[in-house]
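Input/output pair, single chain:
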Amino acid sequence: MVDALGIDIGGTKIRAVLLRQKRILKVMEIKTPVSLEKFVAALKKILLWADGKKLHVGIAVPGVVQGSSALFCPNIGYLKNFNFRTVIPKTLPLFVDHDARCFLRSEHAVGAAQGRSRIFGLILGTGIGRAYLDEDEPAIIQAFEKEELWEKEYIHLRKKAPNQTLATFLADHALPLIHSYNATNLLIGGGVLLRPNFFTKLRQEFRKADPKLVIFRSRFKKNGVAYGAATGA
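Output:
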């Protein structure tokens, strides 16, 4: 039996899940290292933790992806032109994808977006993650692998602004992007939703501007991106 290891590389934390027949066996979380040397050591530590000679490995990164490499990650400065195959043994199948696509893949397969189509996925974390799924698999949209023009302002507001200010800002700036893909469903996830009552205020702001848009919250709390990486592997 071949297990699947999913690794979600975030700007502040790295989260790993080990799956067997699409069920989570165990979870590991560590702080994102501050240097490339320590990052490589962290990946090796996760592989030892997974403890499997027969693994499918999926890695989700918040930036520009090409093949098995992360070309650029806005919130992890040292992660440039990094080929994960230099760390992951060649004997293990490897899949590398953008974190927002992994998020939407997991929610569409077994989460809150199951059975839906024309879904725009919005991840509110250290930065902004975006993905779009028409029918079966999240689309590869290269623009979504780069920062939004308003992302730095979002990061500033995320740290200091009250819920209402942040919710209004996000609705004003994200809705034109959502409309450009003719999405009828909006799936929202990410750590910012842990702020008390924030999702309620954000949904209200989106509904003011577009009453027809169906808005719902991700089912996975923390493991969604890593799960989507593992199932894509």
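The chain is about 35% helix and 30% strand. The longest strand covers residues 23-31.
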